Amino acid sequence: MPNTTCENCKHFVQHYVKEKRSQFVPIYEGHCAHPRLKSRKTDTPACEKFSPRKSDT
Fold it and tell me: In this structure, how many other beta carbons lie within 10 angstroms of the beta carbon of residue 30?
C-alpha cells in the first residue's frame, strides 16, 4: 500500500509561495478538497476519504 498521507491523496492541493525570480516553491501545507475545504500538512495521516494520486509516469 502506498504511503497514506495527505500528500499522496488525489484530493490534496499543495500550496506554494513565490520566491524571487518568479520561482514557486512548496510550503508543505495545502488543503483537502473532499468533501469540503480543510487545511492539511503534507505529512498529515490520510483520512477515510483517501484515494491514491495517479502516478505522473
Answer: 20
Q: Are 8 and 41 a contacting pair, CB within 8 Å? A: no
Q: How does pLDDT run along the chain (57 residues), one tens digit per residue?
A: 557 899 999 999 999 999 988 899 999 999 999 888 899 999 999 999 999 988 765
Grid cell digits, residue 41: 500538512
CB < 8 Å & 24+ apart, contacts of 42-47? 42/5, 42/6, 42/7, 42/12, 42/14, 43/5, 43/6, 43/7, 44/5, 44/6, 45/4, 45/5, 45/6, 46/4, 46/5, 46/6, 46/8, 46/9
